[in-house]
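Changelog entry

Holo records now carry the ligand SMILES as an explicit input line rather than a separate metadata file. Below, a converted record for zinc ion, shown in the new format.
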Amino acid sequence: MTFVTTALVLHSQSLAEKDVRLRVLSPDKGLFEVVAKGGKKSKRRFVNILEPFSFLRIHVRPGRVLHLPPFLDQADLLEPFETLRVSFSHYLKASYFSELTESLFRPHTGQEAFRPLLQAFYLLAEERSPPWPLFKLHFELQMLTKSGFMPRLRECVRCGKRVSGPERFFAIAEGGVVCQNCFREGDFPFPPPVHAFLGHLLQVPAEKLNRLRPAAENLKQAGRIMENFLLFVIDREINSLRILKEML
Ligand SMILES: [Zn+2]
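Structure line, unchanged by the conversion:
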């Protein structure tokens, strides 16, 4: 069945001959691949729109062979997000958001990730996007929540009791907070202000991120813990993140 949907292009790859394969995220179909036959050459149908981060309305036709990606019949540009490709730093950040989304969701899932990703692209394209460490952490928390991987932050992952008191820790492999009694070697220190900051950040909508002024140390520690946790969950390297770290 042919269908029409909106979609963000996460990845665009030229194939042999003149075709282009896209990995896209759609709000009703989730993550999937689609092939634009003659996409490299057909300027009239696809002029400069099969680019990473483009926001499109697409017309998709099933492939002739089962299990092969469907074909892209038509694509209308809703928002080019050109600034995300012009600046290398923006490109890497948008790539990180895309790669992270692809890593956390399987094909034909991830519908709920569409809105946060689109919003992150809009924010990144704006002149006044939030400071990167805060923006990155906020996006990671949203994607962890949407994908069901969000760590437990209330009860100790080892004894199940509500965690309070000044000594708290975070266990990467078990995915959550650990109380003083259950501490083991290798757990990250998770001081109450860092714990409280993460809890608060989960409640803040992306468009209000610019108003936050977190203490630098809280942001740094929370960012480090969440990044370690994410890399543990997805169990592979994220290229754009590695390059970003070398650059920033
Ligand atoms: Zn405990």
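Spot-checked after migration. The pocket of zinc ion is lined by residues 156, 158-159, 161, 178-179, 181-182 (CB under 6 Å). Residues 3-80 form a domain with the OB fold (Dihydrolipoamide Acetyltransferase, E2P) fold (CATH 2.40.50.140).
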